[in-house]
């Protein structure tokens, strides 16, 4: 992963104070529930979980939650939520899906919300997603539509992805071993410099 962890370390303590982030996480979780209809005992792995907001909203609809994030600050917030019972029974994982350090367990659902545009080697990560999913599992990936370089223009020397073209992203998912891909519109991120549309890609294993 391109190392933006210090940026997120600095933001972690205040992350959940932004109502827009909370509402986006709620809507994201609800769209996943509506489109995938997870079983109540499904095992979920959230990659790049941040403070665990999406998992919090998914919790009533799934079983065991496992969260991973490479930001120390975000992991501290997640650990605090687990201790406080906000993420009751959830586990914090040390797995590194980008580096190939995969968990032994298989999951029914892998969730990644606005994370992949920070990852240099997206194809390798998608292959890791496919490999940790059980048969019939689904990867639910929320990402930016291609923004033509605008979304991260305010960040000096930004060297990751500025969103994705849906047809190219679907091909990457199929190349990683997924059998079917469905796209759903997730709304927009509104900023002073414009609106940026988001998609949910549900990628199904065979």
UniProtKB/TrEMBL annotation:
**Name this polypeptide is given:** SAM-dependent methyltransferase
Q: Cite a single GO MF annotation.
A: methyltransferase activity
Which organism is this protein's natural source? Corynebacterium stationis
**Bias regions of kind Basic and acidic residues — which residues?**
1-10
Arranged from A to Z, the UniProt key words for this protein are:
Methyltransferase, Transferase
Superkingdom of source: Bacteria
What PANTHER family would the database entry show? PUTATIVE (AFU_ORTHOLOGUE AFUA_2G14390)-RELATED (PTHR43861:SF3), TRANS-ACONITATE 2-METHYLTRANSFERASE-RELATED (PTHR43861)
Work out whether the entry's keyword set contains DNA-binding.
no
Biological process (GO), any one: methylation
Q: Where is this region: Disordered?
A: 1-20
Signal peptide from the UniProt entry: none
């Amino acid at each position: 992963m391109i190392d933006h962890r210090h940026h997120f370390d600095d933001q972690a303590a205040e992350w959940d104070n932004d109502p827009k982030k909370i509402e986006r996480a709620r809507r994201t979780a609800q769209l996943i529930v509506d489109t995938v209809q997870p079983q109540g005992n499904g095992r979920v792995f959230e990659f790049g979980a941040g403070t665990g907001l999406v998992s919090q909203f998914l919790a009533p609809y799934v079983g065991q939650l496992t969260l991973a994030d490479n930001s120390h600050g975000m992991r501290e917030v997640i650990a605090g939520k687990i201790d406080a019972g906000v993420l009751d029974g959830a586990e914090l994982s040390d797995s590194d899906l980008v580096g190939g350090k995969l968990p032994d367990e298989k999951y029914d659902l892998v969730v990644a919300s606005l994370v992949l545009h920070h990852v240099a080697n997206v194809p390798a990560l998608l292959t890791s997603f496919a490999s940790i999913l059980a048969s019939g599992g689904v990867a639910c990936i929320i990402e930016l539509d291609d923004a033509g370089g605008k979304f991260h223009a305010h960040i000096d020397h930004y060297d990751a992805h500025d969103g994705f073209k849906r047809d190219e992203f679907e091909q990457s998912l199929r190349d990683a071993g997924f059998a079917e891909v469905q796209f759903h519109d997730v709304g927009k991120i509104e900023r002073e410099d414009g609106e940026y549309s988001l998609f949910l890609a549900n990628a199904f294993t065979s």
